[in-house]
From TrEMBL:
Its main location: cytoplasm. Residues 151-303 form the DDE Tnp4 domain. It is found in: Cytoplasm; Nucleus. It comes from Gekko japonicus (Schlegel's Japanese gecko). The gene is HARBI1. Belongs to the HARBI1 family. Transposase-derived protein that may have nuclease activity. Does not have transposase activity. The lineage of its organism: Eukaryota, Metazoa, Chordata, Craniata, Vertebrata. InterPro entries: HARBI1-like (IPR045249), HARBI1_animal (IPR026103), HARBI1_dom (IPR027806). It comes from the Eukaryota. Its cofactor is a divalent metal cation. Keywords: Cytoplasm, Hydrolase, Metal-binding, Nuclease, Nucleus. This is Putative nuclease HARBI1.
Length: 351
């Protein structure tokens, strides 16, 4: 009997805490609260939340052994509240009538549902017309031709996995995941690898990444990524010149910097919208694997937000984790073909 009593107590914690009469989202409609309330509490407008319910509802309504299953709407609001605030606030759980333990389960469920759909929302364009539009959008920013995406890394603080594991300790002495991402000219993410340990330098992450494998296999032809000076020059990755000397080299560096700035703004946007990423409420209190999934879920939501016209370029970011600076000397190219492509780009478009 004892072995059965424990799970029953855990599974019915909401019932024990609040009783049957406590208000839950099942007992009031989203229409009953204002748009301002939804934005302030959960970070997103009503229609966006409805869209997520339609998108994720089937995954969040899977058969359960609980006597009182939590509705998809409640699960989504709980998860959005955590992603956008970075904490399991008591008032947020009270507002939708669930305990902190259930809030945590909701975040786990919604996170996995979003991760399952990552490839649907985070991907490079495949058809020729979309690829050409991608290049045209980049060219319109500062005259840099052939750009298929912008690549950079961002660190997200996590709790220490264990005392012996130093692989997640970054250059600032903090535990983090080093996330490799690419985006288009609008800040839409084209790839996101969120699982790399914080001790790895950006160039090492790229070297071991699926992104590199795709470009080395020439799955994305007739163009290149733009990366900063923490990466090596490749035929498919154009980096800034360390010491520009000619007018053409200065023009190239200026166009590169102006274009690459989009991904830096994208990271600021994501940290501003998803406070669980910026460190202002502390580190993600999860294992590296679960923290990686939460970051990826935020990437999916970021893209869906842009698709719904919810841009956030101008919002300030406070309290974010200090990004470890790459202590690198100039990355000398060891790829003669990359040098040739780079010189041809300079001569053809910037001379």
């Amino acid at each position: 009997m004892l072995t059965m009593a424990v799970p029953i107590a855990v599974l019915d914690c909401d019932l024990l805490l609040y009783g049957r009469g406590h208000r839950t989202l099942d007992r009031f409609k989203l229409e009953d609260v204002t748009d301002e309330y939804l934005l302030s509490m959960y970070g997103f407008p009503r229609q966006f939340i409805y869209y997520l319910v339609d998108l994720l509802g089937a995954s969040l309504s899977r058969p359960t052994q609980r006597s009182r299953a939590i509705s998809p709407e409640t699960q989504i609001l709980a998860a959005l509240g955590f992603y956008t605030s970075g904490s399991f606030q008591t008032r947020m759980g009270d507002a939708i009538g669930i305990s902190q333990a259930s809030m945590s389960r909701c975040v786990a469920n919604v996170t996995e549902a979003l991760v399952e759909r990552a490839s649907q929302f985070v991907h490079f364009p495949e058809d020729e017309a979309s690829v050409q539009n991608l290049k045209d959008d980049f060219y319109g920013l500062a005259g840099m031709p052939g750009v298929l995406g912008l690549v950079d890394c961002i660190h997200v603080a996590i709790k220490a996995p264990n005392a012996e594991d130093l692989s997640y300790v970054n250059r600032k002495g903090l535990h983090s995941l080093n996330c490799l991402m690419t985006c288009d000219a609008r800040g839409m993410l084209l790839s996101a690898e969120t699982h790399w340990p914080g001790s790895l330098q950006d160039c090492t992450v790229l070297q071991q990444s699926a992104l590199r494998s795709q470009f080395e296999a020439r799955l994305h032809k007739d163009g290149w990524l733009l990366g900063d000076s923490s990466f090596f020059l490749r035929t498919w990755l154009m980096t800034p010149l360390h010491i520009p000397e000619t007018p053409a080299e200065y023009r190239y560096n200026m166009a590169h910097s102006t274009t690459h700035n989009v991904i830096e703004r994208t990271f600021r946007t994501m940290r501003s919208r998803f406070r669980c990423l910026d460190g202002s409420k502390g580190t993600l209190q999860y294992s590296p694997e679960k923290a990686s999934h939460i970051i990826l879920a935020c990437c999916v939501l970021h893209n869906i937000s842009l698709e719904h016209g919810l841009g956030l370029w101008s919002s300030p970011t406070v309290g974010q984790i200090e990004q470890p600076e790459e202590e690198y000397e100039h990355m000398e190219s060891l790829d003669s073909e990359a040098d040739r492509v780079h010189q041809e780009l300079l001569l053809t478009h910037f001379s």
